[in-house]
Give the backbone structure.
Amino acid sequence: MAYIRQVDPEDADGLVKKHYEAGLTRAGKVYNILRVQSQTPEALDATMLFYETVMLGKGPLRRWVRELLATVVSKTNGCVY
């Protein structure tokens, strides 16, 4: 059982449903990092906009370099994401 209340995918609507469906399309599942923000849809929306800007937006680094950097930082910090 989660310590943080989460909106289940089948109960999602609005912004939460939009991001859950995008997660399903992208990864075949809804990751917990999305679910824990589901009680505040505006925060979830802002988080995803930030992610898309950093990882997919224009910049000097190619996408694979950004992904590699994210992986190294996560590993260094002991983060499973």
About this structure: The chain has a mean pLDDT of 93.
